[in-house]
User: Fold HAD-IA family hydrolase from Bradyrhizobium ontarionense.
Amino acid sequence: MSLALVKNSAFDDIRRRIADAGALIFDVDGTLAETEEIHREAFNEAFVATAIDWHWGRRIYKELLRVAGGKERIRAFDQMRRSGPPLSDAVIARVHRVKTERFAALMADKGCPLRPGVRAVLDAARSREQRLAIATTTTRGNIDALLAPVLGEQWETMFAAVVAADDVARKKPAPDVYLEVLSQLDLPAASCIAIEDSGNGLMAATRAGVPVLITRSLYFHDDSFDGALAVLDDLTEIAS
Ligand SMILES: [Mg+2]
Assistant:
């Protein structure tokens, strides 16, 4: 059998598993859209606005993305630089608040398209009356800033469960967001499929018992994805 045929039949199996799943559970950043560069820009604008003499380039941001959560990321960088007194919780919270405002403004200004194939997979699921959910470590405000322009103000009605960073105690790679989604959907983990772009996301879903489909993204394309159902470049490969 040719490599193309092997690849196609593997994708047929993935398409079938997606169509049969009790629910499709999506990560947001890097999976629904390539938002990380906009997050990075918003952090850099927040540092300027709060008179903090930092600038995060792509290389350092890639390292910082190992840390889930904006406030946690600011603190991790503060600890890495080891000069001057550490930033207080209040300062970190203020920088993060400004960053969140800048992110929303940048999204409203420029927008960020859904990744290729995402819309087709969402539409196909809805036409099958299959449930959709979101499990993310970004904030609700950030999800709204991303999805309202591309899916409409009523985007939340498309999803049977939306669980964000604010809703659980521990962020990915802890399984909390997935466990909360599963409890809201009242479905067994193994009957669902998670769609993720990072090793952290893969670990979070796997720890909750949810099988994972990976779509490689800008920042996490070289993560280790051992244990994933499949690793795709984007969802056009399985959109039918
Ligand atoms: Mg992600």
Observations:
- The mean pLDDT is 93.
- The two ends are 23 Å apart (CA to CA).
- Residues 27, 29-31, 197-198, 201 surround magnesium ion (CB under 6 Å).
- The chain is about 50% helix and 10% strand.
